[in-house]
Write a structure and sequence with these properties.
It is a single chain. By secondary structure, the chain is of the alpha+beta class. The chain is built from six helices and 14 strands. The chain has two domains: 95 residues, 2-Layer Sandwich (Phosphorylase Kinase, domain 1); 135 residues, 2-Layer Sandwich (D-amino Acid Aminotransferase, Chain A, domain 1), CATH 3.30.470. α1 packs parallel to α6. Bound molecules: guanosine-5'-monophosphate. The site of guanosine-5'-monophosphate (5GP) has 15 residues, from β9, α2, β12 and β14. The site of guanosine-5'-monophosphate has 15 residues, from β9, α2, β12 and β14.
Length: 254
């Protein structure tokens, strides 16, 4: 919630595919602004999807607040507006963590497992976060050798990712959605007193998750856009309504 001593947004630091990161007037805090940008295949396919930013910002904040309460430290500090998160500044660890419960997407392609095959146990994979290299799959040893993370950090990432998976399976299950897979990013806090602490960062949204309706397998995630399965805006508004029990409020044009 915004309060009188809420940080204010300052200079733009970085423009991502679906978010912008700004400085704030408070050291150690950044301002993340969600946009309606949608990309797929490493930016090859691009569109603007009305309401996507508000849906993602609301869902990610809701999940991060629940995770924090459940004991998983996250970067989220406050939500000063429907498109905005104030967050602890972190140095992003360039290792993306994917957890899979059901085969789909990259795993199905790589190993020839039919999409929809339930895995015998959750699978954790590491990818190197690099647009130039197309986020290649990496091993634990590669991450160590390249100095991208330390051994204890990788152990923490894996442990935290499985904990988040347990939480998210129940969370999405309440809305009749099966969590097929998802991607997480973590960072090291930079603020004095917090230095080195690993925080769950970035976002948890249908952009970086696969969510299939139980029974019908209707997609409630960005595969709708990637694979031209329907209208992504309608899909995301329907997801918002399921999660919050009310329609997304009309846009104010702000
Ligand atoms: P896959 O490896 O099958 O393409 O992706 C596995 C899961 O991680 C999917 O839920 C996908 O949305 C997510 N994921 C992996 N890499 C990225 C990425 O660079 N951006 C986003 N938004 N999601 C990703």
């Amino acid at each position: 919630m915004a309060t009188s001593d809420s940080p204010t947004r300052k200079a733009l630091r970085y423009t991502g595919k679906a978010k912008e990161v700004y400085d704030t007037d408070q050291p150690g805090l950044v301002w993340i602004h969600f946009t309606d940008g949608a990309t797929a295949f490493n930016g090859v396919k691009k569109a603007t999807i009305a309401d996507k930013g508000r849906v993602n910002a609301a869902i990610s904040a809701h999940i991060f607040e629940r995770l924090e309460a459940a004991g998983v430290p996250t970067h989220l500090v406050a939500t000063p507006g429907p498109l905005d998160h104030v967050c602890h500044e972190v140095e992003i660890i360039p290792v993306e963590v994917v957890v899979r419960n059901v085969a789909a997407g990259g795993l199905s392609k790589r190993l020839g497992i039919e999409e929809g095959t339930v895995l015998p146990r959750p699978l954790v994979e590491f990818f190197y976060k690099s647009d130039e290299l197309n986020d290649p799959l990496i091993t634990h040893d590669i991450a160590l050798m390249m100095g991208w993370a330390e051994a204890w950090e990788l152990a923490y990432l894996e442990h935290a990712a499985l904990e988040v998976n347990d939480f998210l399976r129940d969370f999405w299950g309440e809305f009749e959605l099966d969590l097929i897979d998802f991607k997480l990013e973590f960072g090291r806090a930079t603020a004095p007193g917090q230095r080195g602490r690993i925080l769950l960062a970035d976002e948890i949204t249908p952009d970086g998750s696969r969510l299939w309706e139980r029974g019908t397998r209707r997609r409630f995630d960005k595969d709708v856009f990637r694979r031209d399965l329907g209208d992504l805006g309608d899909t995301y508004r329907a997801l918002f309504a399921r999660v919050f029990g009310q329609d997304l409020p009309a846009a104010t044009g702000a």
